[in-house]
Design goal:
278 residues; mainly beta; globular
């Protein structure tokens, strides 16, 4: 067996501690700060798999279109959950977002089909729930609620604040804008949610993040999205539909992203958005 010499051990230790230092850096705005520059999407089906007998298919043509279809002859379980996340390596692994990453992203989301309540939209998921929590939701085949909740997201309801609800088959533009500011109690990160639906544009305005659990810091941070974070979209159904057959597809079209180190994936203006829904 080959023995490790002292210099080799020192080199190994240096690499190890350098990795730890880089990992810890994701909590705050101390240089170096990394804002991902996505070039693909990672699709993960059956994050929840309460209806294992259903048929699930998907199509990935990022950034033009991603769609996921789930169809079943009947299921008494609660829900299947399918997600996609931005990737910096062409779709091999999800991108890692830091507390000080500064970005916004958007997509036009359409839920088509019947037989069950479905919810879908965008996702900004913190370290303890990387594929589940932090949802910007539209609900189809139910009450049509449009709301943002869970994970680290400040709550906001477009249905309550603007009286707008979603109907299956209609495209809806959805956007999240995350700004870390200085990640402090006096100047916490903010988020802004925007939708364009049936010719009207609605926004939440800037909403501040509250404080994360200080007992969990390090290594996650306190006044932002909480490192590491994954960002993308999600689709959940049939949400306890009593065993009825269902066939529902969610499509994310014209997926766009803009970060400090990136250029827009697609070019979109408010004028163009308004014309999409007239």
């Amino acid at each position: 067996m080959k023995r490790l010499c002292y210099s080799t051990l020192l080199a190994f230790a240096a690499v190890l501690f350098a990795g730890l230092a880089f990992a810890a850096d994701g909590r705050d705005c101390t240089s170096p700060v990394h804002t991902p520059a996505p070039n693909g999407a990672v699709i993960a089906t059956r994050v929840f798999n309460d209806c294992p007998g259903s048929d699930v298919s998907f199509f990935d043509n990022y950034p033009s279109q991603v769609w996921i279809r789930d169809t079943g002859d009947g299921c008494v379980g609660w829900a299947n959950l399918h997600v996609w996340s931005f990737s910096e390596d062409g779709g091999l692994t999800p991108a890692v977002f830091e507390n000080c990453s500064h970005y916004k992203y958007w997509a036009t989301v359409t839920i088509n089909g019947s037989g069950a309540q479905a919810e879908a939209g965008l996702r900004l998921s913190p370290w303890w729930s990387l594929d589940v929590d932090g949802r910007f939701m539209v609900r189809a085949n139910g009450n049509g609620e449009i709301a943002c909740f869970g994970g680290r997201l400040p709550f906001y309801s477009f249905t309550v604040s603007h009286g707008v609800t979603y109907t299956a088959g209609n495209p809806i533009y959805m956007e999240i804008d995350y700004d870390p500011h200085t990640l402090s109690q006096a100047d916490p990160a903010t988020i802004q949610y925007t939708i364009s639906y049936l010719g009207n544009v609605y926004t939440s305005g800037l909403l501040p993040f509250d404080q994360g659990n200080p007992n969990e810091d390090p290594p996650h941070g306190q006044w932002g999205e909480l490192y590491p974070t994954r960002v993308g979209g999600y689709f959940q159904l049939p949400n306890g539909n009593g065993g009825a057959a269902y066939d529902i597809t969610t499509t994310w079209s014209d997926i766009g992203y803009l970060g400090e180190q990136a250029t827009p994936t697609t070019s979109t203006t408010w004028g163009k958005l308004k014309t999409l829904y007239r």
